[in-house]
Amino acid sequence: MFSVLVAAGQAVLTVFAAASLHGAFDELGKQFAAAHPGVSVRFNYDGSQVLELQLAQGATADVFASADQRWMDAARREKLVTTMAPFATNSLAIITAPRSSVHAAADLAHAGTKVLLCADAVPCGRYARELLVKMDDEPAFGSGFSAAVLRNVVSDEQNVEEVFAKIVLGAADCGIVYRSDVASRADAASSGVRVINLPPESQPSIVYPIAPVSGSSSPELAAAFVKFVLSASGQTVLRRFGFGAAP
Fold first, then answer.
1. 63-65 and 11-18: which strand pairing?
2. CATH architecture of 11-89+207-240
3. Buried b (16+ CB within 10 A) or exposed e, 101-120
4. Is the pTM of this model over 0.85?
5. How far is Cα 43 from Cα 22, in angstroms, rounded to an integer?
6. What CATH architecture applies to the domain 92-202?
7. pLDDT higher at 183 or 222
8. Paired residues of 174 in beta bridges
9. How many helices (H) and strands (E) does the chain have?
């Protein structure tokens, strides 16, 4: 654990984090605050593209954790963040509504199946589309599979939590989310949501980077939080919430 001296009074560390990090980062924030008396950690969770735009428009934050390299690179080009580091990996899975007729990955292409994806600008949406295209090359699915699935998409959501919430409510038959969302959502099993695996050979490379925000009002705390996330203790929390080891 890492300690930073805090001046008298309460210090607030603001972390902008991808929505898929919600459960894990809530726990990391509790542990970090417990190790730093006088510090509270405040989170803003949303799609990485939304968070990067908020930073570009002048939003105040100390740390940015993205679900993909694309939006971290955009933040670096605009000099919104300092040194970044990869801290976790992930994979994709299908979740189905309680009374859905979807029982296998091939069912996503069946006419009339209602599919939810994140929007293409959102990391989970881009990754899902990459995966579907790769599945076109798999004999079990065949050419045209991705096009058939995309025709079944009834809504493009702005973050992965919106996909999960709508599937729990039965607003669509199925959706593609991160494997970590299934591991971290306590309501998954109780709501009747089922999980269907996707072909490992079609999985995209999903790497999460983290960086202190340039101009942070608490640069030492920001650096300490990043260091904690990268530490053995931080990585243990991430594993518990379904994330893989950083490359």
1. parallel
2. 3-Layer(aba) Sandwich (3.40)
3. ebeebbbbbeeebbbbbbbe
4. yes
5. 9
6. 3-Layer(aba) Sandwich (3.40)
7. 222
8. 96, 115
9. 10, 10
